[in-house]
């Protein structure tokens, strides 16, 4: 091959690579835009249309990139109106349920919040945008590790993930202004009631096959409980089954 033909050949290869790279990047930008549109539709059709009103909760549901919290093969379904599998037989909760439960907690910026059932870390990220600190416990080591890494990579610096059984809560970090449980125990774990501050709120699914979302308010005179919605969560495992 003469020198000039060789140069021409190299230039052609280089041009082809640049074009391929650019179209790849355009495709990625289009995919991202598509996911952002899906997220906006999720907020409008599933969350505000069904009565979630807290502007701060709505803002956060618009912002947190839910598709980054699901396995790769679930990305295109991340904004659907349903829970989706995240591995280890567990699920990321339906977007509406995440927004509804968060709204029920009536959070304030300085709050300390305990979450039982980290799962994908999505609910933890939503909480992290609204309060000062989030403590979250996950019983399956692989999920705890994955969520911890993801939350750190995405700079949710005010979330602490612990592997363990959330039935006993996290006494050293309590008491908490709010507690959210995202796996269903058959009855309310007493340690969680103890670790709730007076004036605090807890939201959790309670029951076996048929479950009710219960909102607990703790005040000077005692506990007030309200059933707010029939739901279907994965069961709480560990100590509560013994
Ligand atoms: N909040 C999660 C939902 C995860 S599903 C999200 O946003 O993705 C509920 C999670 O609770 C599962 O990952 C399950 O492993 C976990 N879990 C079940 N029993 C538990 C227990 N006793 N302590 C801590 N986590 C528990």
Could you explain the architecture of this structure?
There is one protein chain. By secondary structure, this protein is of the alpha/beta class. The chain has one domain: 3-Layer(aba) Sandwich (Rossmann fold). Helix content is 37%, strand content 25%. The protein has 6 helices and 9 strands, in the order ααββαβαβαββαβββ. The strands form 2 sheets. It has a 7-stranded mixed β-sheet. The chain has a two-stranded antiparallel ribbon with strand order 1-2. β4, α5 and β5 form a beta-alpha-beta unit. α1 packs antiparallel against α2 and α1 crosses α3. The chain starts with a helix and ends in an 11-residue tail after the last strand. The model has no long low-confidence stretch (mean pLDDT 94). The protein binds S-adenosyl-L-homocysteine (SAH).
Q: What are its keywords?
A:
242 residues; two-stranded antiparallel sheet; seven-stranded mixed sheet; 9 strands; binds S-adenosyl-L-homocysteine; alpha/beta; Rossmann fold; single chain; 6 helices
SSE diagram, text form:
Blueprint: H1 3-48, H2 55-63, E1 84-87, E2 90-92, H3 95-104, E3 112-116, H4 122-128, E4 133-138, H5 141-153, E5 159-163, E6 176-181, H6 190-194, E7 196-207, E8 211-219, E9 222-231
Parallel strand pairs: 3-4, 3-6, 4-5, 6-7
Antiparallel strand pairs: 1-2, 7-8, 8-9
Helix pairs in contact: 1-2, 1-3
The chain binds S-adenosyl-L-homocysteine (SAH).
Over all CA atoms, what is the radius of gyration?
Answer: 22 Å
**CATH level 1 class label:** Alpha Beta
Q: What order do the helices and strands follow?
A: HHEEHEHEHEEHEEE
CATH architectural arrangement: 3-Layer(aba) Sandwich
The total count of helices amounts to 6
- Going by helix content, strand content and strand pairing, the class is alpha/beta
What ions, cofactors and ligands are bound?
S-adenosyl-L-homocysteine
Low-confidence stretches: none
CATH superfamily: Vaccinia Virus protein VP39
Give the tally of β-strands: 9
Average pLDDT across residues? 94
What is the general shape? elongated
């Amino acid at each position: 091959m003469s020198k000039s033909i060789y140069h021409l050949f190299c230039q052609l290869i280089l041009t082809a690579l640049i074009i391929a790279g650019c179209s790849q990047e355009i495709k990625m930008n289009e995919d991202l835009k598509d996911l952002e549109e899906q997220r906006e539709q999720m907020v409008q059709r599933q969350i505000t249309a069904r009565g979630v009103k807290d502007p701060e909760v709505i803002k956060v549901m618009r912002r947190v990139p839910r598709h980054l919290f699901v396995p790769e093969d679930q990305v295109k379904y991340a904004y659907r109106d349903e829970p989706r599998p995240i591995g280890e037989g567990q699920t990321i909760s339906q977007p509406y349920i995440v927004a509804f439960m968060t709204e029920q907690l009536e959070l304030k910026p300085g709050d300390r919040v305990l979450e039982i059932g980290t799962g994908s870390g999505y609910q933890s990220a939503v909480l992290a945008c609204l309060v000062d600190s989030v403590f979250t416990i996950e019983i399956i080591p692989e999920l705890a590790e994955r969520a911890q890494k993801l939350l750190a990579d995405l700079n949710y610096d005010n979330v602490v993930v612990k592997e363990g059984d959330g039935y006993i809560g996290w006494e050293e970090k309590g008491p908490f202004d709010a507690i959210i449980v995202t796996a269903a125990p058959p009855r309310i774990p007493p340690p969680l009631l103890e670790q709730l501050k007076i004036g605090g709120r807890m939201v959790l699914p309670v029951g076996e096959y048929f479950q009710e979302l219960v909102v607990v308010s703790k005040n000077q005179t005692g506990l007030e409980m309200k059933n707010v919605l029939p739901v279907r969560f994965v069961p709480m495992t560990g100590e509560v089954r013994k």
